[in-house]
Write a structure and sequence with these properties.
about 150 residues, alpha+beta, Rossmann fold, 2 domains, four-stranded mixed beta sheet, 5 helices
Length: about 150
């Protein structure tokens, strides 16, 4: 799910070049897709990689990771096994993600120390992550499992 149409085009081109045939891409607002198109208790994993951090404090309300979105995610993940995996190259947003998810009922942080996990080898290296490394930014991976 991607709201930015050039991002959708790039994804489709990459999939074509890689020979991927089992991909569905939607150019739409993720909140609306979750609310109306994804059945409850249907997702084993939800990946949210490098969402817009909305740097300015007055824009923080536009961040996708909010309590209301966390509840939508909880409803869509499989109970006891569904995992919400987030990654960001903006430390303040990573802290915000943990703060929100720690307040959200029905989730447990999968990190040993309750915050960040090492970058999983299975997570693709995105252009935003490459950019973050070039700029000297850290990258934070966060995983929560639905427990109820």
């Amino acid at each position: 799910i991607e709201v930015h149409s050039p991002g959708v085009g790039a994804c489709l081109a990459s999939a074509r070049d890689a020979g991927v045939t089992n991909l569905r891409v939607m150019c739409h607002d993720a909140v609306e897709v979750f609310a109306h198109m994804i059945p409850d208790n249907s997702l084993a994993t939800l990946q949210l990689f490098f969402p817009d951090p909305w740097h300015k404090k007055r824009h923080h309300k536009r961040r996708i990771v909010q309590l209301e979105f966390a509840e939508m995610v909880r409803q869509k993940l499989l109970v006891g096994q569904g995992v919400f995996h987030m990654a960001t190259d903006w430390e303040n947003y990573a802290e915000h993600m943990i703060e929100v998810m720690n307040q959200a009922p029905g989730f447990i942080n999968l990190a040993e120390n309750g915050d960040y996990i090492p970058r999983p080898e299975s997570r693709p290296l995105t252009k935003f992550e490459q950019r973050g490394h070039r700029l000297g930014h850290g990258v934070w991976d966060i995983q929560y499992q639905r427990i109820s």
